[in-house]
Amino acid sequence: MEMEILMKNMREAISNVMETMFFRLVQVPDANGTLQEWFARDRNLLGATLTFNGHSAGSIYLLMPAEMADEMTCDFLGLEIDKVSEEQRKDIVKEALNMIGGHTLSISDGTGAYQIGIPALLDESGLTHDKLGDLEGESIFIETENNHLAVGIIFEQIESDPGEEI
Fold this sequence. Notes:
The chain has four helices and six strands. The protein has a single domain, classed as CheC-like (Chemotaxis protein chec, 3-Layer(aba) Sandwich), CATH 3.40.1550.10. By secondary structure, the chain is of the alpha+beta class. Helix 3 (about 65-75) crosses helix 4.
């Protein structure tokens, strides 16, 4: 049950963060499949991961095409596309994940039992199309007007009381 609740809350958090902070309308299609099927082979991807612990422990990840990160950086910082630096683009990927992960966990448990780490970039060499299959966990596939993103969660352990719901 915990996974179902977290995934529902993550869908809500994705919509809230993407629409409010990055001015992106998103849809979460009923897509099952793999990250390799979701992202085109020729896309240069950026990604970040965020660890958490509390009722359960694990990590949340965000993957997106590099051009989507550029667009989000422009929208968030109010910059023209030619003014976006590589560092700003990477920071926005981490910040978007921080907001999505923090919002997901806060609506999953309003008592503050979850602690989150500092977002870190995923090694770009691990984000090639052939290596996307190495990312485990449950993924939520997201569509914007012209891009695909994915947010996922990987549990390391679950330590809930049998009668306790998040």
